[in-house]
Amino acid sequence: MKSARPDPVVIDDDALARLADYCLANGLTRLLMVADVNTYAAQGEAVEATLTGRGLEVAKVVFDSPEVVADAAHVLDALLASDPPGGSPELTYLAVGSGTLTDITRFVSHRTGRAFLSIPTAPSVDGFASIGAPLIIHGVKKTVISQPPRAIFADLHTLTAAPPAMIAAGFGDMLGKFTSVADWRLGHLLWDEPYDEAIAQRMLATAWRCAEEAEAIGRADPQGVRALMETLIESGFCMLDFGSSRPASGAEHHYSHFWEMTLLREGRPAILHGAKVGVATVLVAEIYAQIRQMSLAAAAARLALATLPDREDELTRIRAAYGDLTPEIAADQAPFLNLTAADFAELKVKILAHWDEIQAIAAQVPPPEEIKTWLWMAGGPVDVAGLGLTAEEQALAEANGHYLRQRFTVRKLMRVMGGA
User: Fold this and answer.
1) Does position 1 have pLDDT exceeding 60, yes or no?
2) What are the φ and ψ backbone dihedral angles of 310, each rounded to 5 degrees?
3) What is the per-residue pLDDT for 2?
4) Which of 9, 47, 96, 228 is the most exposed place for a label (fewest CB within 10 A)?
5) CATH number at residue 386
């Protein structure tokens, strides 16, 4: 599903004036702002003053909960603030914030048939321009197809003044594209998943551009922050142009989602999405490093010993990791869980036949130590301890994260090759 790109995309010090000009030029006179107490203070108050000063009507819903989550409760609050059915179709939403607030607004605006404009307050995620809204639904992180913003107005001064951890999180999210593209290529090669080479090349070029700005991003230099924001938006464009999150979300995101769901279930404080993705990217890059060093003979020896994963054993693993969510996850994983002995044998032959290509894919992923260096330069955590997680929680994500999406990632490859 492809959607029109946001237009314009403004990343500058005059973004709010440009926002007001855009609203007036396009007849967007009734606006509903979605923010939280932090983003309202950082940007929402200035947005409201600028727009009302130009004669526009601005209503708002400002979440005051200690931790805003893209879940049913917050979605309902945003819906209740909207016009009732049959209300004015001219109402336009304003998402003032980062990833979570944008996702709530994206979903609600889409389901009420209204457009929304994005006003980012931190360069912390790559979802501003995308169509997917990652929501927590019955405890599971799911991406619901919604809509992109009609336009994006990012005030550069606000972005550079964002908390350093949020800037570093955006950088971590971008480094995840190295492994997500590799996983995407693996899925296409071994599982016949849909793929677009031109978009993959664009995504990799964007990731490299961001990595080269690591030091400037770590200093919150305006040039570095602008580059980070531009690459985050280009990542969103890649998802938008392909019609799904595949170009930007692989095993590294599955680890992150697993940790997020665990923290939510246990009532623990959330960890920034991009921080989790950055650390997970290091872990996934370590797997790709192992593949680069594995000869065809070694791969053949592993596959010769590998046996078809037993369906009941796999369900037991899923049940231990996900509890009551098992039926839903098992249904999504049906193509993997229902592999026959013949299917499995065919897959093993395919892996060996394409081992040179698999190693070429692995060679595209930077070494894990280099990724760690970039994360350190940008001020982000480089391991699970830096996230406040344990080695056991790392192992659980590595063993079970791949069940969260029906995608053939490097973790699925290692599972097929007899890994845990």
Assistant:
1) no
2) -70, 130
3) 59
4) 9
5) 1.20.1090.10
